[in-house]
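Write out this protein's structure.
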Amino acid sequence: MPVTNDNGSLPRLRLRATAAAETALRGGHPWLFADSVREQNREGKLGELAVIFDRNDRFLAVGLFDPESPIRVRILHAGKPCAIDDEWWRARLQAALGLRQRLFDQDTTGYRCINGESDGWPGLVMDKYDRTLVMKIYTAAWLPRLDAIVTLITSQLAAERLVLRLSRNIQKLAETAFSRRDGQALIGDAPAGPVIFQESGLRFEADVLRGQKTGFFLDQRENRRLVETLARGRTVLNAFSFTGGFSVYAARGGASSVTDVDISEHALAGGERNFQLNQAFAGVARCHHEAVQADAFEWLAKTTHKFDLVILDPPSLAKRENERAGAIRAYQRLAEMGLQRLNRNGILMAASCSAHVTADEYFDAVVRTTIRSGRKFNELRRTRQAVDHPALFAEMEYLKAIFLTLD
């Protein structure tokens, strides 16, 4: 079986999966769960290649093994056997970069270069902020391979620095076993503060060392652009504003005022700096910008202010499947409060980043809530993943947004 054994003299790690898992892997699912492994020839080591065979001893897939994770193998390749060698890795990186090659011009220097499983890099994402790259890994299986991955990245991309971000659940292991820490610079020096990049000609900060995700919510780019086209002459509420990405776009689009509401003082300060970075745009310079530090749910329930455009973009409300039903109720309540804060002839933009709530469930929750409000409405648009955040299987289909106009 011509699949590289990268674990020295040990026999190749061989697994067999349940019939249901075989079907899922043949259908393109990129994970083999621990409870779907029905046979294993030896104990596997973190990050080594595991070859999965079907019940007839035919090659099924190969991936990265993690002996402690419920996702026991993250699939790199399925179908016909192949050598997972340096050239294979190089081609895999070039394919991901090639997909983005013509998506952005010089006005947008911040975007996703690798989107995990959808680009064949399971559990790893990499974002570009001008000349700063940020790689975030969600599985410990990548830790033994970091040096090789960094060498590969530097051979394909010119960057001033590469910053490592680690999912919280692997940070302790990364530091104790591999001397890697969250926010560590793998190439170049760590930045002294946030780095600046451009999006649609606007300038934004990205806190690549400590910020959420890799420092900025790049996945909302297309929705921010749509908000800009709808904002002229409107008073805007940006609930769960983070560092004000939607707000700056709305201001450039001609909003008369923008109110940011977020529980984080640090995020609101970043939003104010993002406004200052874009004072060269007349709309931003003219727009009245107010920041309110508060829990957005509580603030929406208490305030009597009304707005012409309400943006609801909360953090994930369902991090686990058993939280799904409660999240749907919370989205309904949030939409209800947003509608109450909306003037006549207003626009509601409501988004969800909860992967455990499907797009159909989310859109249904918002639309049904709007119907119950008794207000006449028209649906402007439903949006999904950004072009640089492709989702090729269900678990990656997390982002959805709906735009409604109301009487």
